[in-house]
Structure formats: structure tokens, C-alpha cells
């Protein structure tokens, strides 16, 4: 159950070793710690609302899912489930005086399912079909897979750039920037206030945008080793191997903290964040601070984490 509602942030919390990530939602920010998730939103009245609950994580449910590669798949699953829940909470928190019907879990589930289906079709199936036109002219399987991968990346970048001009998405991108700024301030041990967060970068290496681009780059490498099988087999490989590639990408991002050679794969994702984040205003930063404070408080009050 989601609980909590407030107009002002709670007292400061300092937990330098705590790993926190987040996501922009409708007029707000979701922050997630290892065991808790909080959604803070700006209501039509201007007041702040916040809802916090314990997060159900596969990593806590099964120890074997914390193994390398598998943990990346588990994290991706958790992100989709928690992200859908956060969107539901934020959408209903920002409904203006009953002017529209509140969303249900079924509504969000259907929307997420359609979104995932369209994404897989547009970014994995379509490039494979389009690249088939060049098959007679490219003899090398490696070059063929490279061309398909470049086409896939071009579609993703073009899509991200295009939707950035849609009405309403600009504020979501600004909340995305606010989320990054507040997480960066927290990780640097700065005060959780608007001036400190304002001074931080709106880019973050653990961003989902970076993860998507690393997945696309890793897929080029993986698919290059698979040669050029018949089209049906090729399409099946693209879809069935996606969880494995996502798990490998998660390990690349983790490893980039230690090894410079892996940072080269992560760097393009940081560049792509220039399209998916915008500089937030102070009110948006305040929302992100509230969400982070609440999960940090919940972790501080709980027993020591097991992972």
C-alpha cells in the first residue's frame, strides 16, 4: 500500500552508502532505494503529495538472482513493474478535482504492455526487416550486423528527439533532470536542498537512457557472433536474446565504474541524456528532494539491508 501525504520535506537524512535511483513521472518523481519506493508529485493546487511503500524486489526474493547478468534481468523487471506503479500513483495524484476518471492498475498495465510491444517492434523487429534490403550488397555478416545495429540506434535517437517536441513531455524531461540533480547531490554528500541540487549535473551514468543505449551497443556485439541466419531465426534471436543482452549491459554499466574500456560504451548514453533531460525549475527540484528524502528515511529506520 502507498501511504503518506505532505506539503513540506521532512528533516535531512545522510546515508552516503545508500544506492538510490529514480524515474520521472507525471508532474513528479519516483525514487527507489533497495527496499523502498516513493513517488512525490506536484498537485494542481501547487501542494506536494508523496506516497511511499516497501518495494517488492526479485533481488530480495531469491539470492540466486543476484548473480552477474541475472541481476541485470531482475533489475530491469523490477524497474518496469515499479515504474508502472509509480505512473499510476502520479496520474491519480494529479487528477484535478475529479474532472477525469482515475486510472486503474489495468489501465496502466495495458498501456505498458502496448508500449513494450511497440518498442520491440520498432527498435528490434523493424531494423532487422529494413536491413534485409541491404543483404544482397553486404557479404560480411559482421558488417551486416553492424549496419543493422547502426540503423537501430538511429531509430532510437530519432524517436527520442521527436517525442521531445510533444506537448507536455518537456515537463517530464525537466523532472527527469531534477531526479538526476538530486541523486547526484545525495551521492556527493551535499545538503538535500534546492541550491545544492541546482549546482549538480542533470546527467547520471545509471540513467535508463544510458542503459537503453548500452543495450543497443551490446546487441551489435552479440549479434555479430551469430552470423546471418534465415530471417525467421534472426528475428527470434533478436527477441529471445534481449533479456541476456540487458543483463550483460547492466554488468557493463557496473564495470564502467572501475574499467576505462567499459566507460567508452557508457559515454554515448550520457550524451543521449541531453535529449531526455532538461534543466528543471526550483519547484521541480523540490519534488525530487521530497521523494529521495522519504526513501532515505525509510531505509534509515529499517533493519540493515541484506544486499
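-> sequence recovered:
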Amino acid at each position: 500500500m502507498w501511504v503518506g501525504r505532505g506539503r513540506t520535506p521532512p528533516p535531512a537524512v545522510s546515508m552516503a552508502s545508500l544506492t538510490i535511483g529514480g524515474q520521472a513521472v507525471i508532474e513528479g518523481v519516483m525514487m527507489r532505494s533497495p527496499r523502498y519506493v516513493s513517488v512525490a508529485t506536484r498537485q494542481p493546487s501547487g501542494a506536494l503529495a508523496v506516497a511511499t511503500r516497501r518495494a517488492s524486489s526479485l533481488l530480495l526474493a531469491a539470492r540466486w538472482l543476484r548473480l552477474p547478468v541475472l541481476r541485470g534481468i531482475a533489475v530491469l523487471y523490477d524497474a518496469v513493474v515499479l515504474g508502472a506503479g509509480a505512473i499510476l500513483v502520479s496520474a491519480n495524484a494529479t487528477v484535478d478535482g475529479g474532472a477525469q476518471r482515475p486510472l486503474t492498475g489495468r489501465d496502466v498495465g495495458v498501456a505498458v504492455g502496448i508500449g513494450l510491444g511497440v518498442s520491440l517492434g520498432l527498435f528490434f523487429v523493424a531494423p532487422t526487416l529494413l536491413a534485409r534490403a541491404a543483404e544482397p550488397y553486404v557479404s560480411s555478416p559482421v558488417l551486416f550486423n553492424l549496419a543493422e545495429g547502426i540503423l537501430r540506434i538511429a531509430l532510437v535517437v530519432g524517436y527520442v528527439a521527436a517525442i521531445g517536441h510533444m506537448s507536455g513531455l518537456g515537463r517530464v524531461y525537466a523532472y527527469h533532470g531534477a531526479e538526476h540533480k538530486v541523486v547526484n547531490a545525495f551521492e556527493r554528500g551535499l545538503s538535500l536542498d534546492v541550491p545544492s541540487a541546482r549546482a549538480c549535473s542533470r546527467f547520471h551514468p545509471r540513467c535508463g537512457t544510458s542503459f537503453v543505449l548500452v543495450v543497443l551497443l551490446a546487441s551489435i556485439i552479440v549479434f555479430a557472433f551469430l552470423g546471418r541466419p534465415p530471417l525467421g531465426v534472426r528475428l527470434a534471436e533478436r527477441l529471445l536474446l534481449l533479456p541476456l543482452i540487458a543483463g550483460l549491459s547492466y554488468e557493463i554499466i557496473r564495470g564502467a565504474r572501475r574499467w576505462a574500456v567499459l566507460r567508452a560504451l557508457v559515454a554515448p548514453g550520457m550524451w543521449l541524456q541531453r535529449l531526455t533531460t532538461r534543466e528543471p525549475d526550483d519547484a521541480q527540484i523540490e519534488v525530487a528532494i521530497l521523494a529521495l528524502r522519504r526513501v532515505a528515511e525509510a531505509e534509515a529506520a529499517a533493519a540493515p539491508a541484506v544486499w
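The mean pLDDT is 84.
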